[in-house]
Known about the structure:
single chain, alpha+beta, 16% strand
Amino acid sequence: MSNDYQGNPEEGKKVFELDRAHVFHSWSAQGAIKPMPIAKAEGSYLWDYDGKKYLDFSCQLVNTNIGHQHPKVIKAI
């Protein structure tokens, strides 16, 4: 697993604006949400465009519950 993501805040702003313009977030008041664009995901971790690392406690909600980019899933695809 690599921890060397440095971030790209300008790209994050672009992704945020695209999300707000084109993504419907279910079960949410659309005008009240502030989505967090994700730049990188690996295992149980996510990185935002500022380079901040997060432990993903919600990956089992809409992704595979074995984490992001699991080698066996990548190989199967």
